[in-house]
Amino acid sequence: MAHHHHHHAASSSEWEHKWGSLAAELTAGRDVAKQLQLILSFTPPQPSSSEQAATREVLVQKILASYENALSMLSSSRKMTPADQHHHCPSHRDDGDIGTVVMMTMKSSESSPPGTRSGSPGSEDSDHDLFKDTTSSSRKRKSIPRWTHQVRVGPGMGLEGPLDDGFSWRKYGQKDILGAKYPRGYYRCTLRNVQGCLATKQVQRSDDDSTVFEITYRGRHTCTQSQSPSTSSSPAPNNISPRPSEPAMPPAAASAKDRQHEQLLLNFRRGLNVVVTDDGSEFDCSPPTTATAATTFAGSLFFPPPQVITTSDNNTNISYGGEQSTTAAAAPPATVGSVDFPFGNMDHLFDDQTTFTFDNSGFFS
DNA sequence: AAAATTTGACCGGG
DNA sequence: CCCGGTCAAATTTT
User: Fold this and answer.
1) Cα–Cα distance for residue pair A237/A324, rounded to 1 Å
2) Mind listing the pLDDT tens digit for each residue in A175-186?
3) Do residues A74 and A22 lie in contact, with contact meaning Cβ atoms separated by under 8 Å?
4) Residues 170-229 of A with CB under 7 A from strand C
5) For strand C, which residues in window 316-355 of chain A come within 7 Å by CB?
6) Is the CB of A85 under 7 A from strand C?
7) How far apart are the first and last CA of chain A?
8) pTM greater than the 0.90 cutoff
9) Which keywords has UniProt assigned to this entry (predicted)?
């Protein structure tokens, strides 16, 4: 009954494949757990059930800790050697959960040299971020914030996923990518010429799973996009992909700013310190040493108050400390990660003396 | 008619 | 020179 396929090579890749899927799945779980934690933190304090609130937090924290531990174990046990460009589909959940964010990756200075593998975008991660050393003063100056969502659309269902982030895009190009089965579509914010919003995104259909889209965003919206989602209660039936080899066709839906905030908060939660120059390019800055003021923000736990540093260079430095994280004592992710903070050109919006005020939703004003 | 997409040219980094 | 990202004219969609 049990097949003992222990062919050295063949099953090896399969093993790696499974391994990658595992990592991806874990990462996804962790992210979702983080979201839940976030949501909980936003929940207004219920005096009547303060105990339950505490319990909930504890529970979520345990879940998160489990994920973190599993991930760290996984990564310590085996580091994903980029030997083959095998692309693993990130998740196999199907319980009616369609059109969901599967995974998000953030890389600033990602280089894709024309070498062995660069064909498959989204160099697999699933662990890297925790151990990124940011402590080095780091003056990388040139990288435009870039993060990738992997989105899966369900057949026959209206795609409500982040394929539509609530923003309106205009396609300005399409390119065949070497080694990719499907062309890559280039989109930019419709209000580029109106408000100078430099946000762009590119959509790439996955090579093997045509239900998976890799959406890479570059730059953050500076425009005041209308979220106006409540136009009609009955969302028009959107055809998902009319023809093959067509990357994506985002309809229109809701929650623009919500999503934005959500993402921003997620970014925050991962711990970061960011600098934005007037150029629009981002700039790493030294981690905030004032971890002493680990005040509870947004009603509860994690991130310490933000630190806004404005240089005389008309550059705006927004630095954030890492998370305080009360996770299991085993794996303290107290390391401060470096994440790009994608603001567009804030030059128009702020002066070098503008004071940023972060509200509960993580945004500024 | 106006707005959005298509598609080859163009351009810059590696 | 190759590859990927963008421009812009032509063309299609609304």
Assistant:
1) 44
2) 999 999 999 999
3) yes
4) 172-175, 177-179, 184, 186, 188, 200, 202, 218
5) none
6) no
7) 64
8) no
9) DNA-binding, Nucleus, Transcription, Transcription regulation
